[in-house]
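Quick question: what would this complex look like in 3D?
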Amino acid sequence: MKRWILLCLFSQFVSGCSALLPSPITRFEQQTPRPFGYVIGDEIQHRIVIETRQDVKLILDSLPKQGELNRWLNLNRVSVVSDANPGETVVELLYQVFYAPNEVKMLSVPAFTLRFDQAGKTLEKSVPPWHFTLSPLKELAVRKDESGLDYMRPDALPTPLSTRQQWLAVYVGLSLALCISLYLAYLHGLFPVWPKQRIFKRALRELSDHSQQDMGRGLAVVHHAFNVLNDQPLFKHRLQTFYQAHAEYRVAAEQIERFFEFSDKVLFAGKQDVDADDWHNLLELCRVCREIECGRR
Amino acid sequence: MRRSFFLHMNIEHHLNDWRDKALQFEQHINCTVIGQNQAVRELLLTVFARGHVLLEGQVGVGKTTLLRAMAQGLGGHYQRIEGTIDLMPSDLIYYTYLNNEGRPCVDPGPLLKQGEQLSIFFFNEINRARPQVHSLLLRVMAERSVSAFNREYQMPHVQVFADRNRVEREETFELPAAARDRFMMEISIDTPTEDAVLDTLMFDPRFHDVDTLVSGIDNSIAYYQLNQLAMQIQQSIQTSPTLHRYALALWKASSNPGQFGVQLSDVDMSQLVQAGSSPRGMSYFIRAAKVRAWLEGREMLLPEDMQSIFKVTMAHRIFLNPIYGYRREELMPDLLNGILQGIAAP
């Protein structure tokens, strides 16, 4: 009898000691919805709640991959939340079926195995397949339409999705495009009422009213155009400052400098013998400047 | 016809030779007074335009050295006087003393001592002298003559170089408008800003002894030829009707800047200018501009010649309304810039 009592006490002690070392996975619960009443396109949400010891971690690679699982089943979303309680991990799986059965059919969401890491050692836990029935998407009552064919009717139109954001983006894009177009038009001198873009256009028009004999007047017209462009009188010794402010005219620097030299000779040194080439050069400079102000150079 | 052509060629050749000399002279002065290239150029213009010049600047920036160097280079006879509060006009004309025998004597003062050979009359610290002295100077500058001892003394080659310092205003007398107008230029001398120049001025012993420094300048310009040369320069540089219109516009703008679109902040432009440039001032202006054209190797006067000397010849001739007088230092540069930037040619 005494021996029997000692044996009982020993067995109680051993079982007590075993309770001090809990299993690595203390809770593994697969929460599934009703297994019937689904039709094509329905989404099915599975939740797996796992409680483990602190040193046991779920290996995320062991979760099924998001995407197409087979020809009729997609895994749309996989989410793992592991910070709710210490040691608790909740895996959410959102499936979607695309099977179109002619009659009620039983299908299975495939099984998979979850793996856990415990101090370099791998533990495995199987998630069993989940069976459910899928119903056909057709009317049960046998009806014919006016032509004697099987009755078919579409579903009610769904509520349209809000396109407000998209339209806003379209409006913003169009406004931006309009602004860019206006800016390009400005650069290309397409605004007829824009005075700065018409300086040399006006000068060309004025020059067309004169001839080689009016060289002094012609030079004054071009000087005036440069003065207006520069917002102050432009002289030869200030050309470098002018090019800094209007870098686009640098391409015609040689012609502009020749013009100023020629102008000095005619207007200040009394040069009289001007020829057709001089007049042509003046017109050509004006044309070049017109192209520059239009952005074509 | 042929004779006239050769005469023209001779004059041209003569002027070219003189230009080379003038540029060489300028180079020598620039080596003696370093870091003042613009002031040296302006001073050179007054020499060949036969104008008088007033230098203004802070103490010790080299005003006197520059004028002494110029005088040394020009040669001729040179007289110098220091402006003091007790200086009287008679001190410039004569001085009295007792000779070895104890008899009172009267000798010519600095203005008369050298007679017609006086080339440079250097008036140091001119604003310390009284207005009576300034009055005497007016005639010397305008007519190059002075009356004394019941006769008239001519000084056909004289140029007045004056200076004044900008810092001290106590016991000084502001130059009257008439006296300032007789100076062709009022040149501002500022301390050089380049580190290399400042370093040289501090450490190079050559610049420590001004007498030795100035005596090193060659007397390469014959002062007695300058009047004739200046006339030839003025005659040889051509001006055009377009340029005349431009000069006229500048002149009018010096009196009525508002009419030429010049605007300054917080200024009623119709009230700003009390008196613009005088005809004499404009004549000096064109004379100096022509000399610049000559130094640049041109036979025609260009707007750029006029623009380059507009400020230095005009700033002391434009008199602002007293209500803006206290802002003169601030307003005058803006006014002159506004005039230059507001008038086109053509």
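Answer marked as accepted. Residues 195-293 of chain A form one domain.
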